[in-house]
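A further point concerns the way the authors explain their paired sequence and structure data. Nothing conveys this as quickly as seeing an actual entry. An entry of this sort, consisting of the sequence and the corresponding backbone structure tokens, reads as follows:
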Amino acid sequence: MTQSLAEMLSAVDVVDLTQPLSEDTPVLKLPPPFANTPGLTRHEISRYDDRGPAWAWDWLEIGEHVGTHFDAPIHWVSGKDGEDVASVPPQRLVGPAVVIDKSAEAAQDPDYVLTVDDLRAFEAEHGPLPDGGWLLLRTGWDARAHDQAAFLNADETGPHTPGFDAECARHLATETGLAGVGVETVGTDAGAAHSFDPPFPVHHFVLGAGRYGLTQLANLERLPPTGAVLIVAPLKLVGGTGSPARVLALVPRTAAADPG
């Protein structure tokens, strides 16, 4: 007998991979002379008062790349002729997720970067990276998301956060069929990526290849290495280079990661 949708959904856990979005959400800080994005500011329109007696609403001031958010190809110069957020096909926003856990390494070295050798070791154990899927890098960095200073982890030499090395970024963009990559940090590139060749290689290669990025994810420890399905829901923003997004994972109960 064919399983009903209700029966299928009862066999999975829905895991929210989205950080709460508020005025306190950590925001990327670029050094001079570069312009910076604003965080979230709410402006009240009415609040059950003379301006609107039965309703409450606000208008929002926020950058496209704030909080848990989606990077479209046009966010980077290498992808400037590619898709904006509204042009992304919906089937590209749903796909299998693989999770590579490097939280222990990142705890020892905040500048840890994933390498092609790490990818090959993962594939040797779990199989090839899935076409149309998403590679999610777990580093434990979501535990810092309540504190801007700890989350950005910057000193006089710049930010120190984990990510991917340049060759790994190139490999993901040109040697796999992934739809995109996701991270727990403020951006898809490592904190020291300004000094890589090329600078910011995930942005350069991945977005340049028409793939996508996700940042500031949470709860990756609740996902298994393989077997989850990722659902990414950015605003359908015409001309958008990115958008805050709600990101969910469907995890079969028999495959759910040990929450610890």
User: Anything to note?
Assistant: The radius of gyration is 19 Å. The chain has a mean pLDDT of 95.
